[in-house]
Design a protein that fits this description.
The complex is a heterodimer.
Chain A lengths: L1 H35 L9 H6 L1 H4 L4 H9 L1 H20 L14 H24 L7 H17 L13 H23 L10 H25 L5 H4 L1 H13 L1
Helix pairs in contact in A: 4-5, 5-8, 5-9, 6-7, 7-9, 8-9
Chain B lengths: L1 H6 L6 H15 L5 H25 L2 E4 L10 E4 L1 H31 L3 H27 L3 H20 L4 H32 L4 H6 L5 H18 L8 H6 L3 H30 L1 H24 L3 H17 L9 H33 L15 H15 L5 H15 L3 H25 L15 H16 L4 H8 L4
Antiparallel strand pairs in B: 1-2
Helix pairs in contact in B: 2-3, 2-5, 3-4, 3-5, 4-5, 4-11, 4-14, 4-18, 4-19, 5-6, 5-11, 6-7, 6-11, 7-9, 9-11, 11-13, 11-14, 12-13, 12-17, 13-14, 13-17, 14-15, 14-16, 14-18, 15-17, 15-18, 16-17
Amino acid sequence: MRACESTGHRCGRRLGSLLSLVMLAMLFAALAWGCLTGGAPSSGLGQSVDAALHDSGVESRVTAVLLNYRAYDTLLECFVLFLGVVVVWSLRPYRPQHPDPPIGSILASLVRFLIPLMVLVGGYLLWAGSNQAGGAFQAGAILGGAGVLLLLASSPLLHVLPKVLLPGAICLGPLFFLVVAVGAMVLGGVFLGYRRETAAIVIVVLEAVAAGAIGLSLAALFRGSRPEETSSAQARTDALTQEEGQE
Amino acid sequence: MIRLLLQGDCWLILPVILPLLGALLSFLLKKQPRLPGVLGALVTFFASAALAWKLVSHGGGRYYLGGWQPPLGISLRADGPAVLMVLMTAVTGLAVSVYAGGYFQSRINKRGEEQRHLAQERSFWPLWLLLWAALNGMFLSADIFNMYVTLELVALSSVGLTALSGKPASQVAAMRYLLVSLLGSLSFLLGVAFLYKVHGSLDLLAIGAALSLAPAVVMAMVLISVGLMLKTALFPFHFWLPPAHANALAPVSAILSGLVINGAWYLFFRFWQGVLPLVGEGAATLLAVLGGVAIVWGAYQAFCQQRLKMLVAYSTVAQIGYLFIIFPLMEMGPEQGAAAVFYFVISHSCAKAAMFLAAGTLFLQVGHDRISDLDGVRQVLPKTTFAFALGGLSLMGLPPTGGFIAKYMYLSQAVSQERWWLVAVIVAGSCLAAVYICRAVAHILSPRLVAVAGPVVVAASMEWSALALALVAMLLGFVGPLVLHLIEVAG
């Protein structure tokens, strides 16, 4: 009886995966049909982006789109990252079963060697963003990687930023962006409407602050739970786990 | 500054900025998150009301962010439906915020685990205010990529709120919700990419004006529609909704069922508004058939449930059907059709949120929500049970509630276009709703005293806010002309 049931179960699962395979194939065929029979694609917005470039304050098209023409999207994306940190911090802290292995000397010296280089590359990408490929998100990703390395090596550099200030530092990116946007509205009348003369400096400062906050948020996401909770709330978590078991 | 507020169009952006600011503050003030949370909700409510007043007195308009005109920049659009949705979010959102304040206080007071409840509240306020800002941004946006960004914010914050209760059931439901929601978002994004490839613009009005039935556009519309149907939980994509909505914390259930569902549906409506004249009868009828099945199946499932919150969640599955049976009716008279469905959306939002809030109050007082064991709870919590019953009346569509006006408009449209099968579905849906709601109400209003008659542990604000929302749902039965006037303002 039980064998029969399990065979049926397996059959059902195989049927399900077959069905999803067929549906994926159909989706692929439909996408190909849409792509191939669409006729000539439109030229996009490249020309109008170039035409307005001298008013945007930067020379890179990508940066002009991200931080001037469509800065509202970027503002909301900064809040997406902030939201990610809030969500991860709202979940119950994860405690590994085994203690972390001791940090090897290779990792420690690698970190000493790599961190200054990563900060340098991040800073360069940030600066390069104003006239070529680069910008806040790329620089933030490198800084985030540096943060992950520091966390892996439990580097003493982590204590440079007191844990009390961490939420404030993570907020700083979206908050500063919002303040700049509202400031532009109060001074010039339009939300996110920078003046042409000041646009360049505003964008560079905005990118620098955003890159720092992005790097910090990415490292915080890697770390997981809210820092001050993991040690002090150990007993509470234990009690909670027991209670969940009873429920 | 005052001059700016009086003259400028900045009213349009305020309902997005203010909750964002509130979210940051409530995240920073982690010892007292409730104060900036409730204040943020209050300020957002007034900004939304001011936007509605501005719309009625000065007409709709567009706001070019950064001063860049489309297609280069992003624009916001205020017209009747958009502002009505912002207003609906403001009314339901304010009531939920007041409720949440009392809810977390009662939970912190009730048992020994105050640390856990404090941690939940600390995360609730930033998540909820971010969700509110994203919903407002979604309603006001006129740019399809910006819609995707707001959709992402809504999805992520809803998932965070769903998982907040920490119970295993809610964690599983939240994970499933996350996967479904991501699939929907990506499908939507793929559709947006197709539309940009064909039209070279992301402005919805420009795309709508140039729309054709080229293969790539058809593909784009299918991808966008399927993605949004997944997020709206239209039958047969409803499987993720009941566990996610029923296992969340009480204010979260009200937010998810009363507001988040409407957000995804609103985008669906905006896209279909332009396409509908092109696609003809077939596609609209297919949507209506799915909606009709949702109405019957959701009602049947609601009737079978043993738990009150599961019953209310399945009733959401049924009510979503009404949002989709409108599409065949809109071919003849788009304006009347839109008026009917938006009336339905706002009255459902208030009624459903009130019912979820009331169910949460009962749960907190009694300690469970098994329908058969709730006999006599009326004697402990009269206001809450009254709010639940009143919300139920609006769902059934009995006069003098907002649900009645909406269903009356549906029926008159269907009769005048001689679509008898839709008439049958609407009437049957109302009867089925009456059956499952009466099943729950019969127990909670029963004169027998079986429920634990201990001291009242719930805060007064929890009872009053649910009652106020239920009264708004009833009041919508009296202010019909006012609301219809607002809907008809053009963008």
